[in-house]
Amino acid sequence: MNLKRIAAEKAVEFVEDGMKVGLGTGSTAYWAICKLGELVKEGLSIQAVATSLASEKLAQEHGVPLIPFAKLDGLDLTIDGADELDHQLRLIKGGGGALLREKIVAFHSKQLIIVADESKLVDTLGTFPLPVEIVSFAMEWTMDALRALHCKPMLRTDEEKLFVTDNGNYIADCHFEVISDAEELQRRLMGIPGIVDQGLFLGMASKAVIGHSSGHVNILE
Ligand code: 5RP
């Protein structure tokens, strides 16, 4: 059973005709985009924006209508995945490297619905390394500043080259193991020049739709 798929398809049930919808990134959001494509073919009318070049391409392939940002004054809802979520709907995102675009789109959405399989639900964030998007200028100093926060930052690579985000930046995956105070960590990270954004999404998700191996889907709010 594909838990990501059942969660994503359940979340798509919240999309109503005429809505403006943000399309997330990753292997769970993938299923939401496919399902939206099917519904659009059956007559659903939506206007969408994508959170990555990969999701933009997928939406085009599946016939989901993409609208320029300048033509929309915000979104009704966004459906996106997460790398970890806790029971307060605090998230770690950015495993796919799209955290900055995902956060911008989520910020301008009335609702952010997270779709995930049960393995993503945790009591305390931090086992998944926190993705931090950094600019290349003086990045060694930015990495030092990250180390000073008591984590092990690793520059993300892709086929032995540095991974480059859709925005032309790098990702430092920061191994904290346990994030005991996510709000304080966010505050400290965002105080470091050179960090464009980081993968903690706090107070942003309105719901999480979780697929379980028993075949049922539950919704956390
Ligand atoms: C991409 C993300 C993804 O939503 C996150 O990595 C989850 O991905 P997947 O659904 O493939 O497990 O934040 O930047």
From TrEMBL:
Q: Which reaction equations make up its catalytic activity?
A: aldehydo-D-ribose 5-phosphate = D-ribulose 5-phosphate
Q: Which GO terms describe its biological process?
A: pentose-phosphate shunt, non-oxidative branch
Q: Which residues bind substrate?
A: T25, G26, S27, T28, D80, G81, A82, D83, K93, G94, G95, G96, K120
UniProt key word DNA damage? no
Q: Which UniProt keywords apply?
A: Isomerase
Enzyme Commission code(s) on record: 5.3.1.6
Q: Which residues form the active site?
A: E102
GO molecular function terms here? Answer: ribose-5-phosphate isomerase activity
Entries under Pfam families matching the protein? Rib_5-P_isom_A (PF06026)
State which pathway it belongs to. Carbohydrate degradation; pentose phosphate pathway; D-ribose 5-phosphate from D-ribulose 5-phosphate (non-oxidative stage): step 1/1
What Gene3D superfamilies has UniProt attached to this entry?
3.30.70.260, 3.40.50.1360
State the coiled-coil residue ranges: none
Recorded superkingdom: Bacteria
Q: Which SUPFAM superfamilies match?
A: D-ribose-5-phosphate isomerase (RpiA), lid domain, NagB/RpiA/CoA transferase-like
Q: Which NCBIfam families match?
A: PRK00702.1 (NF001924), rpiA (TIGR00021)
Q: How does it assemble?
A: Homodimer.
HAMAP family named in the record = Rib_5P_isom_A (MF_00170)
Q: What does this protein do?
A: Catalyzes the reversible conversion of ribose-5-phosphate to ribulose 5-phosphate.
Which family, according to UniProt?
A: Belongs to the ribose 5-phosphate isomerase family.
Q: What is this protein called?
A: Ribose-5-phosphate isomerase A
